[in-house]
Design goal:
Elements lengths: L2 E5 L4 H16 L3 E6 L4 H6 L3 E4 L14 H8 L7 H22 L6 E4 L4 H11 L3 E3 L22 H31 L6 H10 L4 E3 L16 E3 L15 H8 L5 E4 L8 H14 L4 E4 L16 E4 L4 H4 L5 E4 L3 H10 L3 E3 L6 H11 L16 H14 L1 H14 L4 H13 L1
Parallel strand pairs: 1-2, 1-4, 2-3, 4-5, 6-7, 8-9, 8-11, 9-10, 11-12
Length: 428
């Protein structure tokens, strides 16, 4: 038995996959704690894992009232914005996060499993404690000539340009973590070392990194070093006897399979506008719909008087998506993978960060319509465009055939099992 600490920070999609990993490790006899934000404590405990708190919860974090710019940005933390706004948010988030990661490790911690967000801080903790660590990112981060960095929008710059942009993106991350890393090393009694120095040491040592997505969507780049492995998705834990709520089952039984529409942790504060748009697009496409409220707060309260649209809260995508005719979503890594796993066509509406990358991957795989950038939902033709995409997704048998084939390939993978194997090699 090994005492394992998993650290993960961010929104729901950044946390939930690690509940599946943790539950698999626990079933194998390990003691597992998951350190994350207070909002996700019920999720962690439901999976049978020990919850440990990390600060900087995106759901509750407040802006600095002395900084008008910060106040404006933090009022809508997931709204699309420019690079400068994202950098400001990320730096403040990381600085607040650093101390919490150090506090989360107990004296008996023997292994650290680190998400992409927590890894640049967690490595300092592993060094101070003299314990192994393993990076478990949900998106590809190592530079490659095969594609540009995921946050660049998914457009290839050519092999040389892709690699150069990838190296530049790592330097940007180093800069974001510099202040927090300096404070953390001083607190832990470690000699000064920049994030870039620590990262290069890890690369030189060939430290293993396991990526939690499928080669169905992203084949392993040919120029990655040994030790960078794509192992398959880590699915959020849910109880084996979980069922959809009765109101959802009743809605599903009342007519043909509906279209799912949800934006996850995106578009905070835009619920009324997006709800009206979604309802109008569904009516124009003559389709039934399920709106997942999410951070946007989608609701049918002001948009529909008929029985063809239902609003729901959080339910496992693994249970809901296979019952849909298509899924409209923001294309976060986990939601994109859940749609492929369900074997249903997608309408990607990417907002920011890595979402355009995954949207492009779904379209290239033939399981999705052409992406509709979120900003385009503010145009005069947004309803017509979304309705047309819904019709395309639900009426084209070829797209559904591609989705079914991709789902069969995903079903052969065991991402959490690969993490278990790696852990047992590390602690042997």
């Amino acid at each position: 038995m090994t005492h394992i600490l998993i650290t993960a920070a961010g929104s729901h999609g950044d946390i939930a996959p690690y509940t599946g990993v943790g539950a698999r490790l626990r079933a194998a006899g390990h003691e597992v704690a998951l350190a994350t934000h207070d909002s996700y404590a019920p999720l962690v405990r439901a999976a049978g894992l020990e919850f440990r708190r990390l600060p900087a919860d995106p759901r509750t974090r407040r802006a600095d009232p002395a900084d008008p710019a910060d106040t404006a940005e933090q009022a809508r933390p997931t709204a699309p914005g420019g690079t400068r706004a994202l950098m400001r948010q990320a730096t403040a988030f990381i600085k607040e996060l650093g101390g919490g990661i150090a506090d989360a490790a107990r004296d008996d911690t023997e292994l650290l499993l680190l998400s992409a967000t927590t890894a640049p801080l967690g490595h300092h903790l592993a060094e101070a404690r003299g314990i192994p660590s393993l990076e478990l990112p949900l998106v590809p981060g190592a530079p490659t000539g095969d594609f540009a960095p995921v946050v660049s929008g998914g457009r290839s710059l050519g092999r040389w340009g892709n690699r150069a942009a990838g190296r530049l993106s790592l330097r940007v991350i180093d800069r974001l973590y510099a202040d927090a890393a300096r404070e953390m090393r001083a607190r832990l009694g470690l000699p000064p070392a920049t994030p870039r120095t620590v990262r290069r040491r890890a690369e030189a040592a060939g430290r293993p990194v396991l990526y939690g997505f499928s080669e169905v969507l992203v084949p392993r780049p040919s120029d990655w070093r040994t030790g960078l492995d794509i192992v398959g998705n880590w699915w959020p834990w849910h109880a084996p006897d979980d069922r959809l709520p009765p109101v959802v089952e009743d809605f599903l039984a009342a007519g043909p399979p509906p279209v799912f529409i949800g934006f996850g942790s995106m578009a905070g504060g835009e619920g009324e506008r997006l709800s009206a748009l979604a309802a109008a697009a569904l009516r124009r496409a003559k389709a039934r719909g399920i709106l997942q409220s999410g951070w946007a707060g989608l609701t049918t309260r002001h948009t529909s008087t008929d029985d063809d649209i239902l609003t729901i809260g959080e339910v496992p995508h693994a249970l809901l998506f296979p019952r849909m005719s298509a899924v409209v979503h923001h294309c976060g890594a986990g939601t994109a993978a859940a749609g492929v796993r369900a074997g249903v066509p997608a309408i990607p509406v990417p907002v920011t960060a890595d979402q355009p990358f995954w949207a492009a991957r779904l379209a290239a795989l033939g399981v999705a319509t052409a992406p509709i950038p979120f900003k385009d939902l503010s145009t005069d033709h947004a309803v017509a465009r979304l309705a047309h995409a819904i019709t395309q997704a639900t009426a084209a048998p070829t797209r559904r055939d591609h989705a079914t084939a991709a789902a069969h390939r995903l079903a052969t993978e065991d991402g959490a099992g690969e993490v278990l194997k790696a852990v047992e090699r590390l602690v042997a």
